[in-house]
Amino acid sequence: MENLYDKRKVYEKSQLLENQIKENPLELFRDWFLEAEENSAVSEANAMSVSTVEADGCPRTRMVLLKAYTWEGFIFYTNYNSKKGKALETNNKACLHFFWPSLERQIIIKANLEKVAENLSDGYFHSRPKGSQLGAVVSPQSAVIPNREFLENKLKKLEKEFENKEIPRPENWGGYIAKPYEIEFWQGRPNRLHDRIIYELQENYDWKISRLAP
Question: Looking at the predicted structure, is the pLDDT value of residue 111 above 90?
Answer without folding.
Answer: yes
